[in-house]
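Hi all, posting the design record for the shared folder.

TITLE: backbone redesign
STEP: 1 of 1
STRUCTURE INPUT:
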């Protein structure tokens, strides 16, 4: 496993979110790959699921995302968060 995610919620707010990265798997990652991985895991912390149809941060496969230049959340990712929490 590359990462593990724990979160605790009280009402509509998270008390904490903890993301652990397994150093063994990422020790040879380029900076952009690590950035893509962390943004992907933060998406899970916000409640987003995997997306397989588009090149977005929530697509599985950090190397594929990196190869396509997906290092940060894309419009579809941001729209998913807005659907969960409201806003633009």
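Okay, here is what came back for every position:
SEQUENCE:
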């Amino acid at each position: 496993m590359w990462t593990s995610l724990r979160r605790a919620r009280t009402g509509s707010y998270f008390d904490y979110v903890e993301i652990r990265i397994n150093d063994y798997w990422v020790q040879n990652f380029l900076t952009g790959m690590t950035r893509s991985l962390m943004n992907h895991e933060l998406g899970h912390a916000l409640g987003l699921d995997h997306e397989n149809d588009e090149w977005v941060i929530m697509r599985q496969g950090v190397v594929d995302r990196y190869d396509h230049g997906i290092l940060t959340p894309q419009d579809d990712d941001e729209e998913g968060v807005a659907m969960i929490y409201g806003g633009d």
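COMMENT: The first strand starts at residue 3 and ends at 10.
Let me know if anyone wants the other runs.
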